[in-house]
Amino acid sequence: MDFAAASEAKRHLLEKYLRGDLDPELGSPPGIPCRSPGAEPRLSFAQERLWFLDQLIPGSPVFNVPMAVRLSRAINIDTLQKAVTEIVRRHEALRTSFITRDGEPAPVILQDCHTTIEVIDLTSLSAAAGEIESRRLIEDEARRPFDLSRGPLIRTKLIRISAQESIFLVTMHHIVSDGWSLLIFFKELSILYDAFASGRTSPLVELPVQYADYALWQRDWLRDELIERQLTYWKTQLGGELPVLDLPTDRARPPVQTFAGERLAQTLSAELTDALRALSQRGGATLFMT
User: Fold this and answer.
1) For residue 75, is it within any domain?
2) pTM of the prediction?
């Protein structure tokens, strides 16, 4: 970020962040404590939103978080299974399902939850046929929905291409995962696999707090007058007559949303990219928003 080119408001916010100052409107949030053993777990606000959307569009894979990683080494499936099992044990979120109780969502955290890695052997196929079939399997897995009321909300597959080539698939639902979670998952997987393959125990320390602890902390902090101020702000920002984005399309919009779409890759020149960054800064937006 070009600090000198940033707006005065952005510089002020950045300086406050670097000093560790918080918005006085939000108060000083307490540290996140571990919940007491008898405390009933609750959904975070983000989880409640995703649960609502799942009720609105049941059976949709749109909130799947899939990742396919190519492994160019011989993989011991028992060691990989042991590493995945340990990660699921470490993270309560991966052992959580979401039932409906009296019309409201309620998280259920399983104490013992085993995730079995499904192994698909494509070693009998030619290299070209193996690539085609693995791509089909990856796409099918990403499109397969979860049932939030039945855990675990994580699936794992290992596609064997050859003795030295495999593709490891991990799919989680967004209600228990996000992009950062995937980075943590694969970092821990690498550490645990290497440790278990060498006959060592897990070198990872136990987590001081779990996501369910954060959810309770968030609910306890953002309540009463504080949450009302936040809701009032956004109702004001998003209220009134909002502009309509009238984009031309090549076909009529279907009466029921399908989420069907495609991805188009386009390489932009360095000059155009710099100009887009400058435009973003002038508009107070990120390059992603532009």
Assistant:
1) yes
2) 0.80
**Tens digit of each residue's pLDDT (9 = 90 or more) over 62-73:** 999 999 999 999
- Domain containing residue 190: CATH number: 3.30.559.10
Q: How many domains is the chain partitioned into structurally? A: 1
**List of residues 6+ apart from 174 with CB closer than 8 A:** 50, 63, 64, 65
Q: Are 171 and 66 in contact (CB under 8 A)?
A: yes
**Dihedral sign computed on CA atoms, order 52, 56, 59, 63:** negative
Place of tokens 């013992």: 112
Range(s) of the domain holding residue 73: 65-94+111-199
Distance in angstroms (rounded) separating the CA atoms of residues 239 and 227: 18
* Residue 267 placed within a domain: no
- Convert the pLDDT of each residue in 210-241 to its tens digit: 999 999 999 988 888 888 998 999 999 888 88
Domain contains 4: no
Residue at 227 is within a domain? no
- pLDDT mean over 90-97: 96
Cα-trace Rg, the chain: 23
3-class secondary-structure state, position 86: helix
C-alpha 107: how far from chain center: 17
Q: Coil, strand or helix: which one is 159?
A: strand
